[in-house]
Write a structure and sequence with these properties.
single chain; 50% helix
Length: 102
């Protein structure tokens, strides 16, 4: 269950420049919100995310995300003490061809 004392406006405005913020719901849009904060958020957004969802929910969502940059992936792997290979985004990246290295 999410902590509902916050609104989407409590997060940095630059995170949701591409969507209608009024349509976001902390429960229905949690994967999108977690992804945006992990990839583009500030430390204040990360701290707020922990308060809203809790570490277990963030961990479960981040393990299933299809794409994370290498810095974010390293941060999450260290924070949750999980090997990078357990993240879906890591597996997808390893299985895809890298055209520039042939």
């Amino acid at each position: 269950m999410t902590n509902t004392k916050y609104t989407i406006d409590d997060l940095s405005t630059h995170l949701f420049w591409d969507v209608d913020k009024s349509a976001l719901d902390f429960e229905k849009s949690k994967e999108q919100i977690v992804y945006k904060v992990l990839e583009y958020g500030l430390m204040k957004d990360w701290n707020l995310l922990k308060e809203i969802y809790g570490m277990e929910t963030i961990k479960n969502i981040s393990l299933e995300l299809r794409n994370l940059d290498v810095v974010t992936l390293s941060f999450l792997a260290t924070t949750f003490n999980i090997d990078k290979s357990n993240f879906r985004c890591y597996k997808l990246k390893q299985s895809g061809p890298n055209f520039w290295n042939y």
